[in-house]
Design goal:
Elements lengths: L8 E5 L15 E5 L18 H34 L8 H28 L2
Antiparallel strand pairs: 1-2
Helix pairs in contact: 1-2
């Protein structure tokens, strides 16, 4: 296999030296070549072609959007419904109502965690 490269299999060595006279000059010594199997083709992700700032924005931006959609958006829509129904106090805005509801939700969640911690610590 002169000139051709094989990654595994059996190759014939064609060496000019160390040949016996009674051997056939066309046949060389045998060598078994063992190598790792070729790696499988892995499909590239479409995001691998994006620059790193875009990837960073997608990772953190999608996380921030998820948090916004779970915590802020329902409170905002509730406040808009209250405003449309006329249930606001004088001077209350949708922004102030949303902020008040989000802070209330955060404090309620914090109180729940504190209660759970007290219950676990009391055992």
């Amino acid at each position: 296999m002169n000139g051709n490269h094989r990654s595994s299999g059996i190759e014939r060595l064609n060496r000019g030296m160390n040949r016996d006279i009674d051997r056939d000059p066309e046949r060389g010594e045998l060598r078994i070549v063992v190598s790792a199997a070729p790696s499988e083709y892995k499909k590239e992700r479409a995001s691998s072609y994006l620059p790193w700032p875009v990837k960073l924005f997608l990772k953190f931006g999608l996380f921030a959007f998820g948090l916004f959609a779970v915590f802020v958006l329902p409170n905002y829509l509730d406040c808009r419904g209250q405003r449309d129904s006329g249930l606001f106090y004088y001077g209350m805005t949708v922004t102030a109502c949303t902020r008040q509801n989000v802070y209330g939700q955060i404090s309620t969640t914090q109180k729940r965690f504190e209660d759970i911690a007290r219950a676990v610590g009391g055992r």
